[in-house]
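REQUEST FORM: STRUCTURE PREDICTION
Request ID: SP-0412
Submitted by: Lab K.M.
Chain count: 1
Length (residues): 220
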Amino acid sequence: MNVLARALLFLVALTATAAQAQPREDRGAPMGRFDFYVLSLSWSATYCDLTGKRRGNAQCDKGKNPGFVVHGLWPQYERGYPAFCTPGGRTPSRNAMDIGERVFPDPGLARHEWQKHGTCTGESPAGYFTATGAARARISVPKQLAAPETAQRMSVVEIERAFALANPGLRPDMMAVTCKREMLEEVRICMTRDLRQFRPCEEVSRDSCRVRDVTVPAAK
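STATUS: Completed
RESULT:
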């Protein structure tokens, strides 16, 4: 086999491996069929620095950048996840949005998360927003990450350990710490369907940032 043929085979194998590593999005899946939840907490300062300020998001106004905010509560399979289970389905009522706006940092995000993820839970919009709030209340944010006034440098392992110490029963194989441009992006925590316990989640945990250290921008 010549060098070119070997190189082509290598590229094919590499592409296949990358495709397998991507979580599978199961659009239009039946409602209520999933294995566990992922609560995604976004580090607001990173989002605002990279995207939110440019878009004029209200959460990025001075004094409204508190550290971790809820990105979403995602129903998950052991491999892949359901999404948009009832495209164009029920629009959240004003009463439901009153709940959602107390949980999410932005009304637009609340609506998007309902359409993409909430429709797959089997809950009503109000039920989904309430469950998201209950999941967030279950999590204790480590003191050093509550609302730091100055930027700090932390390793992914330090962040995982801090969350594990603050939340008895939580282990590194039950969460992912993601980053973007070497800045802390999100902490994603895997929870049972009843939201009472943490649980292992191999595919989610594999998404943890590959760099050793990340910058944690100051809350603003």
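NOTES: The mean pLDDT is 88.
Reviewed by: T.R.
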